[in-house]
Design brief:
The chain is an alpha+beta fold and 165 residues long. It has 2 domains: 5-57, no CATH class; 62-164, Aspartate Aminotransferase, domain 1, CATH 3.90.1150. It contains 5 helices and 6 strands. It has helices at residues 25-28, 44-57, 60-83, 106-115, 138-164, and strands spanning 5-8, 20-23, 88-94, 97-102, 121-123, 127-131. A hairpin with a 2-residue loop joins strand 3 and strand 4 (97-102). Helix 3 (60-83) runs parallel beside helix 5 and helix 4 (106-115) packs across helix 5 (138-164). The longest helix has 27 residues, at 138-164.
């Protein structure tokens, strides 16, 4: 079933401030002048940027490459989840927007990753998010997985040391 209204923003401008509100003809009929406003409405540069982004992201070869990269990232993360179950339990998400459900406090995993020079962000339900850009390359994905492996090894050592005391 298709939605009546779709709001799009961040990804639409690839970092440039733009947003869109798409609506069915029936719903849009209620959006008369003065009932719906926009901070950046009608900005020609924003529309040019969004148009280019939509054309690039709509390219099937580009999307296939993004799917392949997402599968590579997920495979690396899932292998580590099996090896370091004391650090994180599962991989969530899809494509290049994934998270790992931490067993340790997510802040500890974020800090351990920062020590490895990898910036991540925590999310609800004790999750650490990996938010790779669509243009990430394979070596950057592999490097991120290696950073996570080192961080997990460090955390596993701390967990074992604390248990021994």
């Amino acid at each position: 079933m298709a939605p009546d209204i779709l709001a799009a923003a961040k990804g639409l401008g690839n970092g440039f401030p733009v947003a869109a509100c798409l609506a069915t003809e029936k719903v849009a009929a209620g959006m008369t002048p003065g009932t719906h406003g926009s901070t950046f409405g009608g900005n020609p540069l924003a529309m040019a940027v969004a148009s280019k982004v939509v054309r690039l992201v709509g390219n099937e070869a580009f999307l296939a490459d993004v799917r392949r990269k997402g599968e590579r990232l997920r495979a690396g993360l899932e292998a580590l989840a099996a090896e370091y179950s004391e650090a994180f339990a599962e991989v969530r998400g899809e494509g290049l927007l994934v998270g790992v459900k931490a067993v340790v406090p997510s802040g500890d995993l974020v800090a351990a990753l920062r020590d490895q020079k990898l910036l991540t962000v925590g999310a609800g339900d004790n999750v650490v998010r990996f938010l790779a850009p669509l243009i990430v390359n394979e070596s950057e994905i592999d490097h991120s997985v290696q950073c996570l492996e080192r961080a997990c090894a460090d955390l596993a050592g701390k967990v074992k040391q604390a248990a021994a005391q």
